[in-house]
Amino acid sequence: MLTTLRRYARLLLLDSRYFWWLASFVILGDFLLTQLIIHFVPYTEIDWATYMVQTDVYLKGELDYSRITGPTGPLVYPAGHLQIHRVLHAITDAGTDISKAQQIYGVLYIISLALTCTIYRLAGGIPNWALLLLPLSKRLHSIFFLRLFNDCWAVMFVEAAVVAYQTGYDDVGTLLFSAALSVKMSILLYLPALLVVLFKRHGLIATGRHLITLGASNALLALPFLEEDYWAYLRSAFDLSRVFLFKWTVNWRMMGEEIFLSQQWANGLLLGHISCLVAFGLFVWCREDGSVWMVLKHGFRKPDRPAGYAPVTADYIATIFFTSNLIGIIFARSLHYQFYSWYAQQLPFLLWRTRYPAPV
Hints:
The chain has helices at 2-14, 19-40, 48-59, 79-91, 98-123, 138-146, 151-166, 170-181, 191-202, 204-221, 223-237, 257-261, 263-283, 292-301, 314-330, 347-352; strands at residues 69-70, 73-74. By secondary structure, it is mainly α.
C-alpha cells in the first residue's frame, strides 16, 4: 500500500503527463482555502471605499478625470479600472456588500491561479511540484480578497494575454493586454517583451498594427473622458512622473527618504532600467536568432515578414514577458504592498529557468 502511494505521489510530482491532475488538486485546494480565509480572516479596508466613491462621482456624471476623487485622493487609474468598478458598484450595492465583493475577488484569484498553471504547462519544462509553491503566499491571498486591490484585475488580464500569445491567438492577446493596461499603467513593464515577440513573430508592419490596436482600444474605452478633457485624463491615468510617499514603499527603503525622493535617484533607476533592458535585448532575447542586429536587419528589410529566425515558442513568450516585468519591478522607485501581485506567481517559473540547482 505504501509503495503504491509513493508511486502515485512520484507520478503526480514528477511526471508531466499528470501535470493537470496535480494542478486540479492545487486549484481545488486553494479554492477551499480561499473560502476559509474569507470566512475566518477579517477584511481590511484600504482602497476599496475610495474606488467606490470615485465610481459614484463618475456615475453622477463627472467626466473630468481631475475632479474624480475619493477619501485617499484623486483617481489615478485608466478608464478600464473605472468601468470594472462601475460593474462592481452595481453588484455590491455601491460597495457596501463586502462579502459579495470578496467572493468575486476570490473567483478572480482562482482564475489567476488557473491561468498561471496554464502558462507553466504551455511553456513546458517546469516540474509538476513547482505548482505546490503557488498557493503558499499569505500576502497574495490578502491582496486579492482581503484587500480587494485593483491590481488583481490587471494581473488576470495580462496572464490571459500571455496564454493567448503562447497559443498563437495574438490578436486576442493584444486585446487582453490592452484590457490589462486599461486598469493599471504598470502593465507597460511588459511592453518591451511584447514588442520583441510581435516583431520576431510577425515583422514590422504587423507589430505596428498591434500597437495601433492597443492604443485605439484604450482610447475607445476612455473616449468620454478624452472628449471632456484629454489632458486631465492622460495626466491622471498615465502620469509617469508620479512620486509615491516614502512611508508606503517596500522597495529601496535602505536608501533613506532624502535619496529615495531625489530626482537624481529617479534618473539613476531609469538609466538602470533602460540599460538592463538593452543588455537583455542584445545578449539574451535574440541570442537564438544569431544576434539582435540580424533580427533588426531582417525586420526592416522585409517589414511584412517575421523578423526572427528562431521560433517564438510558448516557453520563450512566458520567459521574456516575466523577465521584462521583473526588470521593471527591480528598478521601480516605489513598490507598495499590493504590487507583490505583479510578480508573485511568476517567481517559481523564473527561478526554475535559472542555472542554479533546485535546493538554491
